[in-house]
Write a structure and sequence with these properties.
about 250 residues; mainly alpha
Length: about 250
Amino acid sequence: MTNSAPQAAQTRNRSRLRSAAKIVVFDIAGPLAAYQLLRSAGLSTVSALVLSGVLPGVAVLSGLIRRHRVDAVGALVLAGIAVGTILGLVSGNPRLVLVEGSVPTAVFGVLCLASLWSRRPLIYRFALEFIGQDTPRGREFESLWQYYGFRHAFRLFTVVWGVTYLAEAAARVVIVETTSTGTALTVSKIMPFAVGAVLACWMTLYGRHARRQGERQAVAAQAAAQPAAAQPAAAQAAAAQPGWCAR
């Protein structure tokens, strides 16, 4: 019993390290190194970009096979890779291959904003899926939807993610059109994770602020309820006093 908490923490840390290593190898360093090696070997810019883009696709497919279910984000990534590959091979334009990263980013932004009209916003659904809907923590998380402050926070999160990802998609298109292929490739591999990290940090800070504000409101409401509850007791005590006290 005493060792379960440290073991669970170690397991979570190992899982995070594996996830970070997979991102570095398959999504950032791997494609960049593969592109440079392929270009050095004499391949064209389009061919090098297309082949180096296989690594993120392999990572997504391996995750799909391991979990035995379709991941929405992974499906968007694969769709973006497919679109960029087809456009690049058909047109021979490397910039169209690089624009593929903006496709899933823009689609995700649109889906976030569109989900505001649904019963649950998209970021809430992702958070619930990450926690595990069938776990005790997931059921507790789901029960919090009844509170206005909780609903407001996740609707705000969804708006911010949607607008930010649409802005990121536009920025990546501008970078692709105005910089060299190598620079655009580097930015397109690093930017999504930088933007995601900033958004995650903001959500954490906002969540802590909202929790502290909710705790203060709860304390204030409790303090306001105490005098109201004390008034009937005081009236009963006065009525129980002898008649000379009233005079």
